[in-house]
Amino acid sequence: MEQQFEYGENTIVATDQGKVKGYGYRGLRIFKGIPYAKALRFHAPEPVDAWEGVLDVTSYGYVCPLLDMGKPTGEVMVPHRYWVMDENCQNLNVWTPGCDDRKRPVMVWLHGGGFEAGSSIEQIAYEGENMSLLGQVVVVSVNHRLNVLGYFDLSDFGEEYANSGNAGTDDIIAALGWIQRNIAAFGGDPANVTVFGQSGGGAKVTTLLQSPAADGLFAKGINMSGVIGPVLADATGSGRELAEAMMEDLGIKSVKELEAVTYARLAESYKKVREVLRPQGKYVGGCPHPNAYYAGEPVANGFRRETAHIPLMVGSVFGEFGAFMPGRQDRSKMSREDGERAVISALGEKAAGEMLPLFEKAYPGRNPVDMLLLDFIFRQPEITYIRMRSGLNQCTWSYLFEQDFRIDGGRVAWHCSDIPYFFHNAELVPNTRMPGVEKLEEQIFRSVMAFAYTGDPNNDTIPEWKASTPDEEHTILFSGDIKVATNHDHALIPLAAKYLGPFFGRAMSDGEAEIQH
Asked: Among 150, 151, 322, 341, which is least packed, fewest CB within 10 Å?
């Protein structure tokens, strides 16, 4: 019988700071919680101290502390897990087919949760085993600073805080530097690194493209549901007023004292002050801060031409946040006529009359009622993002995940529902285990792996998928009936924003939509 588990001399690897010992399983070598940097609160990351002997890295490391510990909900749709939190969270995990000289592609996962929450292991679907084993790639997932720890501009208080507003991004850049120096010892190719992430993780891919310090540290990017417009807008302006208000609230007089208070006190004060400043349109942190280190969100500021050569896959899912809205219809019992009546009832005859023909053209075969859950929050800025990016190169690829699911009488694809397919982890998430899912999972996974190896996602399981241009967005629609369409929803999405915006806004303001990440 093939040995399934191994823990010994064959699982030790030498890094630039010392030896680490992982374990072997399913023919892989797995290392969890490797420290890649250290940092004082609000300061730039620094190299970790070298250690003597062999460091055991068989347990996941600390994750960044959260501002709030929310009530677990929606676990059928997005299964989660939570881990031990500590500010000393600069660590990463590695799955590799072999610690040899094979120089495999390297896939670096950046987790979701905006720039405020989440962790490298938060979702069960983030597990790297299947991707590493089936794709023969090295998978790395990264923890880094978030929220008030990672994105709090204190630059007015001295040079030592010059980029505190992007400390979380600096952590990611430090992790990519560690990968450049060490990944060859884990069987990876430092010249072929793909950064990929979903939601906030996708937005982090963009911040890396816009950060000069990241140049040369990665070769490709995959941005999954990470173009979110104002939802994750840059935090502009000075953080002085936020910091001074927090110091007053905490009864302290200096940033050095702010560095020393417990995280619990820091977080409570931050949340309290943020709620006062945010309605005034003032800086509240929590997102990247445009400055000399970060060029700002590209739709507003343009892409840095230094990164124009980097191939990028960009996409989202059919429903995104809208799929979490209440009042979904059981589509299995609804005729097309019923669906049209539901749209007219919800939006009125004028809006329905304008949108329904465009929806039918964009998504032939779908019940019209699905239009009420169509995403525009991500898709509208994404169309602009792809148009701008594709104007710089011939290696920008557009996708949309529109697989329906069977729970609750049938749900359209929701935020995060594509992640198991990208990782080849459908077996780990109950709601993805549907008849025929293996084919779609293989098509998506093979496309991701082709992109990781070559920068071109085309492979023999999918129809021809052309790179987009400013005039023609060639979008592959991932579902049981996979196809490629050109500008398929460009006329529809502005109307969705116009007419569905208030409809969705009411559900959000009433707290009826339980968004997951």
From this structure: 341
Percent of the chain predicted with pLDDT > 90: 85
- Position 1 scores a pLDDT of 37
Q: Where are the alpha helices (DSSP H) in 98-218?
A: 129-135, 147-150, 167-182, 200-209
Residue 94 DSSP one-character state: E
**Residue 399 counted as domain residue:** yes
Q: What is the pLDDT of residue 509?
A: 60
DSSP 3-state helix, strand, coil percentages of the chain (rounded to 5)? 40, 20, 40
What residues contact 113, with CB distance under 8 A and at least 6 apart? 119, 122, 146, 199, 200, 517
CA-nearest of 179, 47, 157 to 108 is 179
Number of domains in the chain: 3
Size (the chain), residues? 517
Handedness of CA 429, 107, 445, 388 (dihedral sign): positive
Domain containing residue 43: CATH number: 3.40.50.1820
Q: How many helices (H) and strands (E) does the chain have?
A: 14, 15
Residue 33: name the closest of 43, 25, 21, 44 by CA.
21
The tokens describing 166, both together, are: 């992007």
Chain segment 386-442, per-residue pLDDT in tens: 999 999 999 999 999 999 998 877 889 999 999 999 999 999 998 887 877 899 999
Look up tokens 């019209």; give the residue.
368
- pTM more than 0.85: yes
pLDDT in tens, 281-292: 999 999 999 999
Task: Kindly indicate the confidence band of residue 508, based on its pLDDT and cuts at 50, 70 and 90.
Answer: low
pLDDT given for residue 421 in this prediction: 97
Domain that holds residue 495: 315-509
∠ CA 197-57-46 to the nearest 5 degrees? 65
d(CA 120, CA 127): 9
List 198's β-bridge partners, or say none.
224
Q: Is residue 515 part of a domain?
A: no
Cα–Cα distance, 335 to 316 (Å, whole number): 27
Q: What is the pLDDT of residues 254-283, one digit of tens each?
A: 999 999 999 999 999 999 999 999 999 999
Can you spell out the DSSP letters for 37-74? -B--TTS--BPPPP-SSEEE-BS---BPPPS--PPP--
Looking at residue 236, its pLDDT comes to 96
| Domain-embedded: residue 488 | yes
